[in-house]
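in:
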């Protein structure tokens, strides 16, 4: 018997993952745009980079949630 709650939860996690990945890509674009615009607001660039790192960690955590545990 398939656990519907588990499937719904997995689908929700995958949807959240896609949203986080898109936000991560958007931050990449924003950082690149700020850096090519010249020596502008370095504080803003640092904030965006920090947010990007937080997203990367969250994405890794959620990907681990989707990976089944393997007992060797």
């Amino acid at each position: 018997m398939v656990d519907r709650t588990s499937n719904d939860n997995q689908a929700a996690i995958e949807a959240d993952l896609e949203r986080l990945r898109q936000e991560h890509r958007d931050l990449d674009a924003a950082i690149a745009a700020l850096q090519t615009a010249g020596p502008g607001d370095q504080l803003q660039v640092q904030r965006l980079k920090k947010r990007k790192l937080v997203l990367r960690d969250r994405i890794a955590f959620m990907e681990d949630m989707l990976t089944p545990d393997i007992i060797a």
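note: The first helix runs from residue 4 to 36.
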